[in-house]
Amino acid sequence: MKGFRNLSQIVTLSGVHKKNGRRPLMEDLHIIEDGAIIFDGEKIIWVGTTSNIPDNYKDVPLTELQGHVLTPEIVDSHTHLIFGGNRAQEYTMRLNGADYQEIAQAGGGILSTMNHTNALHKEELHSLAKERIERIHSYGVGTIEIKSGYGLNIQKEIECAEIIHELKKEFKGHVQIFNTFMPAHAIPSGYESGREYLEKVVYPSIEQIHKKSIIDAVDIFFEEGYFNKSDTETLFEFCKNLNIPLKVHADEFNDNGGASLACHYKALSCDHLLKTGAEGIKSLANSETVATILPGTGFFLGKAQANARQLIDSGAKLSIASDFNPGSCHCDNLLLIASLAGPALKLSLAEIWTGITLNAAHSLGLKDQGAILEGMKPRFSLFKVNQVDEITYNWGRNFAISV
Ligand SMILES: [Zn+2]
Predict the structure, then answer these.
(1) pTM > 0.85: yes or no
(2) What are the structural domains of the chain?
């Protein structure tokens, strides 16, 4: 057993946990001033104020942490951090006024990252991803979801999933990694339809990777010009039969009914939601499927944002993730994105913290973390500030300390 004492604040989120992450209010953060906590490797044993530490824990070594704030662990539940090359040129073209089609004609987009990724050896992709995980962790993020999806052929997609699995083992006990398999990220040239690519590449690769038992979920890009509704349904049925949890990119370019479909299939999360209409919002409000917004993408591309206000007010479980990727959001700092999302999407402090901790954990099926409560996993983030609001108030500054 070990623990901390004299923490300026422990932001427990106990009220948020009770409400299952829906419509969180400031008082639901349930902040303990001058807090203390006792835990072992598996679970939180006791939490309260320093003056109330029970006598039977008097011999437990406690680290003095005055001037620090402890929060539930920050979770980045949506990244594409395993890729080769960069798309800085495309970014410049966009700033200079080029549209999506002009960029695609100049060889940009997901398919350009596919070429860069396929040009790298396994060791090179591994070390790039490792460096990115370490940087993300330095901001106080302790759980990171990583998607494959820039190989876009059986061999490279499986290789990327294997790299993520190796990294998961390497970072064990330190950073928790969630391995999402996403060969259905785009349709490379040479395939006439989404269906043909699913049949020739996606299903065979899922079958192979499933046998290795190394993936945690499957994701698909359900958008106009990519995979359509019937492709998405077929993939969902395929995964359901194999008992693989689902995630989906949906409603980014237009309202394609992705949110309702995700809820129907009990997906862990439905991500982007820039254009989700009343029906999709209603489905999410009545479902355990987490509504994950990715405001960094809107900021980076200059797009209108998701209707986060309506999602939360309707009762949906809202999570915020970075979407870190080389094209549409080259920002790996979830706290910075959350700081900017507050005023831009009209989110309260309680909604921000719920979105990057409890609901983000739920969007990965992790129900035993996301709040600092007895019996839950001892997964925290620690910051060198006196009050929780200082963390996002000082946007772009890093106060995280290794726990
Ligand atoms: Zn994404």
Answers:
(1) yes
(2) 2-72+369-401 (2.30.40.10), 74-362 (3.20.20.140)
